[in-house]
Structures are given as structure tokens and as C-alpha cells.
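Per reviewer request, we include the raw input and output of the structure prediction for the construct analysed in the revised manuscript.
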Amino acid sequence: MNVHLSHNTYGKHHVRISKIKRHSDDAANHEFIEATINVMLEGDLAEGYTAGNNANIVATDTCKNTVYVLAKDDPFDSIESFGSNLATHFLTQYAHLNQATIEIHQHVWQRIGDCPHGFVGGTNESPTTTIVAHREQSLSVCSGLTDLVVAKTTESGFANFHRDEFRTLPDTDDRIMATSVTAQWNYSSSDIDFNAARDSIRKALLVSFLDHYSHSVQETLMRMGTAAIEACSHVTDITLSLPNKHHILFNLQPFGKENNNDVFVVTDDPFGYIQATVSRD
């Protein structure tokens, strides 16, 4: 039997880092950044697998150290800018590598009131980005967010959907619509204000979630994706995943009470999962 190594990649995952940014004009005014970073490398590495030759293998421990050392002097203006600098560094530093992929999940800290150095955490929402640096291609940036939990308690229904012998779900014209948004969007350029772009996209997603009567999660997803693309001219496409976070009307009739669409059972599993990509023409 003949076999061959058709693809390989390796690196360091879950490199956790935090950084305090101190402003030069006000040293007591801090920004607090925390992120988890994955580094993956590709290139002339096959002999490490096929011949036990480690000469070209940059240790995964070296990958980890690189993250911390570069973070020291990097302005860390955004997770995209730091990821781009980190990916570019690996190709500049190691001639035998041809691709570096950096994935970053940011952990959000919010300022406590007006305190310049006090922060509160706890939100599950995580800004994300994936940077791919390739020697023969321009830098690609795919950003996004995960676990943006949103809900509206009216202006949503689901009716007139396909009927067959297995359908049991009744029509409704008033329901809780709740989901945990995961979004990924691709940029046409790596030379933009990523923070401003992210803010405008996130705002557009939230506004478009609320600004209409929703006939289905599918319809709302399309409206949200369209709004995100309209909000940022540098976005070429956006993929949205909107899993249902079900709130099911509880039957109060056995207890002599009428449920006026105000008491619900919250369920986690199983759940509907709706995903689509909206692209700019």
C-alpha cells in the first residue's frame, strides 16, 4: 500500500494573554485586553513527519513565546492588527514557512463607571478574528463574534410552514425569539480601522434583529446579514449562525389558569440551528 503526506500544519493553541495599555498622556488611564490565541504554521515541514528530521520545526513553545514577546511592543490597536503583525512575523522570521494562521478570541472587559483602571467581566460575547498570511497571497482577515445572546419578547412568529404527517408544532404569531449569534465576515482589505468596522457591524446586527416583525429566524438572518454588509463597505460576505434558544409556552390549563403568553419553559436541547452566508454582489 502506498501512502503520502498530503497536508500538514501545527502550532500552539490556547495561548492566553492579557495586556494593560497605558496612555502616554495619562498613565493612570488603562485599557485592559485579554485574548486567547491559536497559532498554526505551514511550510517545508514534511521531513519532520516522514523522516524524523526536526530541523525545520519551530517548537510550539517558541510559537507561544513569540505571542508574548510581540505583544510587549505592539500597540494592540485591535485583535486584527495584532493578529496581522503576528502572522507576518512568522513568515518574515522563518524563510521555510509559507503560511501562518492566527486565530484570536477576545475576552471582553468593560470599564466600571468612570474608573480609569477598574473593569468588570462576565459577558460571554467574544470578538474573534482569523488572519492568514501566505507568501504568494495578500493578507486575509476574517473577523466575527460569538455568543452574542439576544432576544425579543414579541414581534416574532412562525406560521404556515411545511405540513406533513410528522409536524406537531402549531402556528404562532407571537413568540419569544432568542438566539446566540455567531458571525464571521470577510474583509476586502487589511488596511482599515478594524475597531470602527466591528462597531458598525455589531450595531447593524442588533438594530436589524429588532427593526421588523420576524416571520422566521431565516428571514431575520437575511435582514441581519444585509444590514451588516450595508454598514461596512469593506465586508465581502458574512456568515451567521442563529441557533434557537427555545422558550416554550407552559400549559397552565390543568391548574385552572390561562397562559397569556407570559410563562414559558426554557429548554436547551435539542435546538433548531439556522445558518446562512450573505454575500455582496
